[in-house]
Amino acid sequence: MFDYSIKTKVIFIGALVVLIGLLAFLITYNNSQARDLEMITQARNLATSLENYFAKNYSYPSIDQMKVSNIKVISENGLNEAGDYLYFKELDWVMEGTLLSTKDRYIIEFDLNHSWDIWNLDGGGTCKISNYLEMLCVSK
Fold first, then answer.
1. For 43, left (φ over 0), alpha (ψ -120 to 50), or beta?
2. 89 pairs with which residues across the strands?
3. What are phi and psi of 118, to 5 degrees?
């Protein structure tokens, strides 16, 4: 019933391998773009927490530059200090970033891996979120 020549079988198998490879690439690429967006969401979550801290305490917590993955909590008592009110609780960060905070300014810095027209990134770059949730990015 299905008596195909060797040439036809080889072409069919080759096309199938190419199709599977293409699908694997597209899935990986989309997951990588999703990681960029998740990192932005996580950084904005941290920035919103710092803005809420400022609204209550009239200053940001003083934090020397550190990896965001080392932040366990931000409470009314400061960074990684137990307290009655939590502004921020530890996240499982999808990518690495840094936080620097003084009493009147904070900067959350992280890299994105893809082009994003909305942030004027061509081929990825470094982004910073600072006071009032302002986000600025610079291409690599």
1. alpha
2. 73
3. -60, -30
The structure's pTM equals 0.79
- Cα separation, 47 vs 127, in Å, equals 13
Stretches where the chain sits below pLDDT 70 are 1-2, 20-31
| Token pair of 23 as six digits | 């699908």
Helix (H, G, I), strand (E, B) or coil at 39: helix
39-to-24, 46, 48, 54, 69 alpha-carbon distances in Å: 23, 11, 14, 23, 12
Tokens read off for 120: 């004027």
| β-strand partners of 63 | 101
Residues 39, 112 contacting (CB under 8 angstroms): yes
